[in-house]
Amino acid sequence: MSATGAPMTTAGGATWSGTAARLPGTLRLGGHRVGYELRRFFRARDAVVFIFAYPIIMMGIFATVFSGSIDLGQGRSIEFSQYFLPGMIATGVMLSSFQNLAIGIAEERDSGGLKRLRGTPLPAASYFLGKVGQVLVTSLVQTALLLVVSALAFRVSLPDTAGRWFTLGWVFVLGTATGAVCGVAFSSVPRSGQSASAVVTPIVLVLQFISGVFFQFDQLPTWMQHVAAVFPLKWMAQGMRSVFLPDDALVMEPSGSWQHGATAAVLAAWLVVGLVAGVRTFRWRRRDDG
């Protein structure tokens, strides 16, 4: 004898019927959750405009204000717009991943959304897969838009070899995943959803200024370079510079090389740190909700 019932829907958007039926697997539910998170993201039009437009607007400002070129010596030079594009890609990824999740999850917790979600059959792993998947998709769209606008409006040269595109791919994926898990972990730091933006945004701004996004990294004070090297954004920006700048531009790198191995190691280390911190500190309830 089998029991049947009305169809039910999980918080991830998956449906099933029958009281004896099993829930779909964690990965499948995570895939449904990605779709839900994307729909939810694009409904918040103000956030969509900011996240997608910010790197393009900043690129336009820097390409207009710094309209000349950077002298590399021996008669070689690169346009300022070409130099600043990698930093704009890196900071866009950071906005879409770290800042977006750190603020958004804190607001979800404050509104009671996470507490209600915890009471559903949706596994916690599927929830986090949905967040990471949403960030990967939105970051990809954001980066593609920035590349198209930069190439058409500011005549920035795109990678011309398969090796450079491959580097762009792994730096992008690893950097986005790292930013996402760190954003999930950091979402537990703000005491409330209302204070989340005030806590997260200054950190992102400081990292942008010291990580070679708004200024040539080699022109920053040495102590500032050392501080920036502890955090992922500096390495994402450097990895992106190795994609979009000629090897002649290595004279502007303090190390004299692109340091792909160090970039992968630092980003992977922060990915692990974010995962461990997220598991240990993530909260489904507000601090005042016993």
What would you note in describing this structure?
Helix 3 runs parallel beside helix 6 and helix 3 packs antiparallel against helix 7. The chain has one domain. 66% of the residues lie in helices and 4% in strands. It starts with 7 loop residues before the first strand and ends in a 9-residue tail after the last helix. It has helices at 26-43, 45-65, 80-111, 113-118, 124-153, 162-186, 193-210, 222-228, 232-244, 260-281; strands spanning 8-9, 15-16, 69-73, 76-79. Strand 3 and strand 4 form a beta hairpin. It has ten helices and four strands. With 290 residues, the chain is mainly alpha-helical. It has a two-stranded antiparallel ribbon. A two-stranded antiparallel ribbon has the order 3-4.
User: How many β strands by DSSP?
Assistant: 4
Low-confidence stretches: 1-8, 15-20
Query: Which structural category fits the helices and strands?
Result: mainly alpha
Overall domain count: 1
What would the average pLDDT be, to the nearest integer?
87
SSE run: EEHHEEHHHHHHHH
Radius of gyration: 21 Å
User: How far apart are the first and last residues' alpha carbons, in Å?
Assistant: 42 Å
Strand order of the largest sheet: 1-2
Percentage of residues in DSSP E strands: under 5%
Overall body shape: elongated
Biggest beta-sheet profile:
2 strands, antiparallel
Portion of residues within helices: 55-70%
Give me the number of helical elements: 10
